[in-house]
C-alpha cells in the first residue's frame, strides 16, 4: 500500500501543556494507521517531547520532524495595563544538525533571558544568526503577518514577510489553514497575493490539538481548566472540531483548489532529515585530575581507605601484623572495585561526587551516610561519599556496579534540607552556570484532580463532585486510575449510570486523565555537562527558581547524554544537626559518625515503641512491630527497614517468632545457613539472592546480579535460561537436582520483592542515630524536632505531650 500524499506539519502534543491532548504514542499510531510517512510535532514554546517523539517515531517507521512554535516579541511597544502584548508565534522546523543546534539555542535563550512567567519569546533580530538549518512557516492567522493583515495593515505585513524571507532565504513558507474560522477566510486571499507577489511557496496545515471529533468536548474542557474558565462562559478561547487529526484525503479535499500547498507538505518532509537520537553518557572532566582521572581516583581512594581503617578498624593495642591481617580484605576489595570502576570509565563520576560531598562536609552541611546501592562500595566509603563500612555489614559492590552489565552508576545523596541548595550552587560555580541545571518534571491530571477540575468547569455542585472524588482511593505510591476506581466502586458506577451530568463528567475526565498539566522542577535531579548544556538539550526556566532546568525529563535527559546526580533534601538530617547544636550549647559536641551501635538505652526505647519522630520507625504500624520484635542489635533495624513494605511485611510475624525462639529458622539447604542466618532463614535482601547464586551455583556476583534482574522482570524465555544455568551449577556443586529446582523457585518467589540491603543499612543508620539522640538527649531532640515542625500542628502536639511526660517523670 502506498504512503499517503500529505504530511501534518503543525501538531500540538500533550507537551503543549494544558492545551494539546494528543499523547506522542497516540499521534504516531494515527500516522502509521493513516500511512503518513512523516509528521511534525510543534509544541507551543517548547521542545519537551522532542527526543521521546523521535524515538517513538523511529520504532514505528514514521519520520519525525522536530519543530516548535516560538514567540516573536511585538515591536509595536504597546503595553496593555503594564503587561507586554502576547508575542507573535512563528513555526520552526529542523532540517539538519545545524538547525537542531540553532533551535536548542533559540528556545533556551527565549526562556533564560525572558521575564519569569512570561511565554518564551525573542526579538526577531535574535533569529538572524540562528536561522541556518531551520524552515519557517509564517503561522497564519495568529502570526505577525496574519495579525497585521487582520488589522488591515497590509504594507507592514508585506514588510515583515520580506524580512522573514531574508532571515530564512529559500526556507520560508506561507502557511494556510482552513478550520472554518472567520479570520482565516478574511486574510487568505491577501496571503495568497503576498505569496505570489514575493514568490514565496504555500503550505497547507491543520492546527492539530486532539485526535478526533469525539475528543472535542473533552479538549474544550481542558482549555477551560487551563484558563480558569467555565465551559458555558462566553468570550473565552475556543477551538473547533476541525482542530483534529485529519486524514490525507480530508486535507487534499480541503485544499483541492491549491494542490501545491498540500504537495509542499511532502517537500518540507523531504527537506527535514534530522532526528535526535540516544547519546552515550558524557561526563565533564574532573578539574583537579590533570587529565588522569584514573590515577587521581586511585590516589584519593587508597589514602581515604587508610584513614577509614585508622579511625574505624584498627584498635590501639593492635600490632603491625594484626593490622595487616584486618586491613587485607578491605585493600583487596578496594583494588577490585578500582579496577572495575576505571575499566568501565567511571573514575570521573566518583571524583565529581566525592568532591561536592567533601565540600559540603567541610562547610558543616549535614550529609546522609548513604542511600541506595552505592553504600555497598568500599571506594565510595574510602572517598567519604558514604559513611557505612560495606564489609562489616556484608554489602556487595556488584549490586551497585555490575562489571558484567555496563550502566551508569547512580549515587543518590541526602543533604540537610535547609542547606541542600548551597551544595548545588557550589557545583554551579565549580563547573559553570551554563553547564549545570536541574531536571524538569511534568505534573499530570490524576484521577481525583481531573474529576475535580472537570466538575468545576462544568459548574457542577462542589459537594456532589467532592463526594465522588472521595470514593477514589488515594495512594500516592501506587495511584489508582479513574477507570480502575469506577470499575471497583459500585457507588461510582451507579452515579454514572443514573445521573446524566455525572456520566458527562466521568466521560470527559476519563479522556483527559494522564495529560500533562504543568511543568516544574524535579526535587533532586541535577545534570552536569562538559559543555554549555544548550548544545545538548533545550533549557527551561521554572518561574519559582533562577536555576536553568532541562526541557527533557529524567528519562530523556539521560538518553540525550547528560549524567544525572541526585541531591535530595532529608529533614531528618536537619533535625539531627539542630540537636547536635543544642547539645553543644551546654554539653559535649556529638560526632554522629562515631556513635556506638550497641546502646542499650536506645534499643530499650525502640522496643517500648517510643519512636515518634524517629526516621523510618515512627508510623503506628512500625511502632507496633518494634514493640513485638524488641530489636537489640543494629541488624534488626536493617531488617525492619527492608521488611516493612507491602509484600515482605507478610514475613514479619515469622521473623519475630524466629528471633524469640518460638519458631526454628528454615535455611532451605545447609550451605545457605551462613547467608540466611542473620535474617533467621528468611530471604530479605537482594544481596542474598546474589550470594545464594554465588555460593550454590558458582555464579560470579556480576552474573548473579543479572539473575536477580531477570527474576524481577519475569521474562519467561530469560527465566528458563537462568533456571537451567542455576540448576546445572548447583548440581555440579553437589546439590541434588530436585533440591536445586526447589531453591530456585523459592529464590524466584522472593526476588520480586527483595530489598536492597545497602539502602536498608544506610537508612537504618540514620534511624539509629535519631533514636540514639532521642534516648540520650530527649529534650534537645524534641526541641530540634519542634523547631523543624513549626507548621505541623499534629506533630507539635505529640512532641509537647512527650515533653510533658518527661517533666512529670
Structural shape: elongated
> Averaged pLDDT, please?
91
Spatial extent as radius of gyration:
31 Å
The percent range for helix content is 40-55%
Strand content: 5-15%
Describe the structure.
By secondary structure, the protein is α/β, with parallel strands linked by helices. The protein contains 33 helices and 13 strands. The strands form 2 sheets. Strands 1, 2, 3, 4, 5, 6 and 7 form a 7-stranded mixed β-sheet that branches. A 6-stranded mixed β-sheet has the order 8-13-10-9-12-11. Helix 4 packs antiparallel against helix 5 and helix 21 packs parallel to helix 31. The protein is elongated, with a radius of gyration of 31 Å. It starts with 23 loop residues before the first helix and ends with a helix.
Helix and strand arrangement:
Layout: H1 24-33, E1 38-44, H2 50-60, E2 63-72, E3 88-94, H3 97-112, E4 121-122, E5 134-137, H4 144-150, H5 154-167, E6 172-177, H6 182-198, E7 202-205, H7 216-227, H8 248-254, H9 259-271, H10 293-312, H11 320-343, H12 347-362, H13 378-382, E8 412-416, H14 420-431, E9 436-444, H15 447-457, H16 462-469, H17 482-488, H18 490-498, H19 500-512, E10 516-528, E11 539-541, E12 548-550, H20 554-559, E13 563-570, H21 571-586, H22 600-607, H23 620-629, H24 634-643, H25 652-659, H26 673-676, H27 686-697, H28 701-713, H29 716-732, H30 737-751, H31 757-776, H32 778-788, H33 793-808
Parallel strand pairs: 1-2, 2-4, 5-6, 6-7, 8-13, 9-12
Antiparallel strand pairs: 2-3, 3-5, 9-10, 10-13, 11-12
Amino acid at each position: 500500500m502506498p504512503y499517503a500524499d500529505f504530511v501534518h506539519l503543525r501538531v500540538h502534543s500533550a507537551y503543549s501543556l494544558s492545551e494539546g491532548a494528543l499523547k506522542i504514542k497516540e499521534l504516531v499510531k494515527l500516522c502509521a494507521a493513516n500511512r503518513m510517512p512523516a509528521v511534525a510535532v510543534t509544541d507551543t514554546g517548547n521542545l519537551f517531547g522532542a527526543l521521546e517523539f523521535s524515538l517513538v517515531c523511529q520504532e514505528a517507521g514514521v519520520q519525525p520532524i522536530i519543530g516548535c512554535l516560538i514567540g516573536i516579541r511585538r515591536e509595536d511597544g504597546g503595553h496593555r495595563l503594564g503587561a507586554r502584548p502576547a508575542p507573535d508565534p512563528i513555526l520552526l522546523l529542523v532540517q539538519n544538525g545545524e538547525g537542531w543546534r540553532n533551535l536548542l539555542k533559540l528556545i533556551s535563550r527565549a526562556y533564560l533571558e525572558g521575564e519569569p512567567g512570561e511565554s518564551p519569546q525573542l526579538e526577531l533580530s535574535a533569529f538572524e544568526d540562528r536561522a541556518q538549518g531551520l524552515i519557517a512557516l509564517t503561522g497564519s492567522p495568529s502570526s505577525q503577518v496574519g495579525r497585521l493583515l487582520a488589522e488591515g495593515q497590509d504594507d507592514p505585513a508585506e514588510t515583515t514577510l520580506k524580512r522573514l524571507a531574508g532571515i530564512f532565504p529559500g526556507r520560508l513558507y506561507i502557511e494556510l489553514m482552513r478550520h472554518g474560522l472567520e479570520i482565516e477566510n478574511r486574510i487568505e486571499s491577501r496571503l495568497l497575493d503576498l505569496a505570489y507577489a514575493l514568490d514565496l511557496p504555500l503550505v497547507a496545515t491543520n492546527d492539530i490539538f486532539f485526535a478526533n471529533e469525539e475528543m472535542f468536548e473533552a479538549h474544550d474542557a481542558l482549555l477551560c481548566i487551563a484558563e480558569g474558565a467555565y465551559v458555558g462562559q462566553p468570550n473565552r478561547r475556543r477551538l473547533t472540531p476541525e482542530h483534529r487529526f485529519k486524514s490525507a484525503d480530508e486535507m487534499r479535499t480541503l485544499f483541492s483548489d491549491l494542490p501545491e500547498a498540500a504537495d509542499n507538505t511532502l517537500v518540507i518532509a523531504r527537506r527535514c532529515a534530522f532526528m535526535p537520537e540516544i547519546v552515550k553518557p558524557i561526563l565533564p572532566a574532573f578539574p583537579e585530575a590533570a587529565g588522569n582521572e584514573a590515577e587521581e581516583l586511585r590516589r584519593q581512594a587508597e589514602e581515604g581507605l587508610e584513614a577509614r581503617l585508622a579511625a574505624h578498624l584498627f584498635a590501639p593495642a593492635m600490632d603491625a601484623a594484626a593490622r595487616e591481617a584486618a586491613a587485607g580484605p578491605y585493600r583487596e576489595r578496594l583494588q577490585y572495585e578500582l579496577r572495575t570502576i576505571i575499566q568501565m570509565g567511571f573514575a570521573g563520576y566518583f571524583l565529581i561526587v566525592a568532591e561536592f560531598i567533601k565540600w559540603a562536609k567541610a562547610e558543616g552541611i549535614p550529609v546522609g551516610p548513604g542511600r541506595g546501592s552505592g553504600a555497598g562500595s568500599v571506594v565510595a566509603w574510602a572517598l567519604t561519599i558514604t559513611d557505612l563500612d560495606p564489609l562489616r555489614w556484608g554489602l556487595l559492590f556488584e549490586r551497585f556496579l555490575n562489571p558484567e552489565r555496563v550502566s551508569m552508576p547512580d549515587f543518590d545523596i541526602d543533604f540537610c534540607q535547609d542547606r541542600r541548595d548551597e551544595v548545588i550552587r557550589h557545583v554551579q560555580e565549580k563547573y559553570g552556570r551554563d553547564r549545570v541545571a536541574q531536571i524538569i518534571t511534568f505534573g499530570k491530571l490524576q484521577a481525583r484532580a481531573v474529576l475535580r477540575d472537570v466538575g468545576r468547569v462544568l459548574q457542577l455542585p462542589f459537594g456532589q463532585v467532592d463526594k465522588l472524588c472521595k470514593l477514589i482511593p488515594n495512594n500516592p505510591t501506587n495511584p489508582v486510575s479513574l477507570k480502575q476506581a469506577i470499575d471497583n466502586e459500585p457507588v461510582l458506577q451507579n452515579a454514572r449510570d443514573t445521573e446524566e451530568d455525572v456520566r458527562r463528567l466521568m466521560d470527559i475526565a476519563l479522556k483527559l486523565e494522564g495529560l500533562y498539566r504543568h511543568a516544574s522542577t524535579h526535587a533532586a535531579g541535577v545534570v552536569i555537562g562538559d559543555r554549555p548544556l544548550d548544545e545538548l538539550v533545550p533549557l527551561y526556566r521554572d518561574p519559582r527558581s533562577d536555576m536553568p532546568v532541562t526541557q527533557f525529563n529524567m528519562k530523556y535527559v539521560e538518553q540525550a547524554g547528560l549524567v544525572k546526580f541526585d541531591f535530595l533534601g532529608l529533614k531528618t538530617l536537619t533535625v539531627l544537626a539542630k540537636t547536635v547544636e543544642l547539645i553543644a550549647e551546654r554539653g559535649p559536641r556529638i560526632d554522629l559518625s562515631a556513635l556506638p551501635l550497641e546502646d542499650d538505652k536506645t534499643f530499650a526505647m525502640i522496643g517500648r515503641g517510643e519512636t515518634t519522630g524517629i526516621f523510618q520507625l515512627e508510623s503506628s504500624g512500625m511502632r507496633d512491630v518494634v514493640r513485638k520484635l524488641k530489636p537489640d542489635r543494629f541488624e534488626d533495624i536493617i531488617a525492619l527497614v527492608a521488611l516493612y513494605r507491602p509484600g515482605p511485611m507478610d514475613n514479619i510475624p515469622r521473623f519475630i517468632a524466629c528471633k524469640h525462639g518460638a519458631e526454628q529458622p528454615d535455611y532451605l539447604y545447609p550451605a545457605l545457613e551462613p547467608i540466611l542466618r542473620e535474617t533467621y532463614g528468611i530471604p530479605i535482601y537482594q544481596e542474598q539472592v546474589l550470594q545464594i547464586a554465588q555460593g550454590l551455583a558458582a555464579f560470579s556476583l556480576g552474573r548473579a546480579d543479572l539473575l536477580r534482574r531477570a527474576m524481577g522482570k519475569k521474562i519467561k524465555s530469560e527465566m528458563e535460561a537462568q533456571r537451567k544455568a542455576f540448576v546445572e551449577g548447583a548440581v555440579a556443586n553437589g546439590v541434588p537436582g530436585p533440591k536445586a529446582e526447589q531453591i530456585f523457585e523459592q529464590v524466584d518467589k522472593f526476588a520480586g520483592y527483595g530489598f536492597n540491603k545497602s539502602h536498608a543499612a544506610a537508612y537504618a543508620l540514620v534511624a539509629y542515630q535519631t533514636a540514639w539522640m532521642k534516648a540520650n538527649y530527649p529534650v534537645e531532640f524534641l526541641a530540634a524536632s519542634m523547631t523543624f515542625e513549626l507548621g505541623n500542628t499534629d506533630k507539635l502536639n505529640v512532641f509537647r505531650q512527650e515533653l510533658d511526660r518527661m517533666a512529670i517523670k
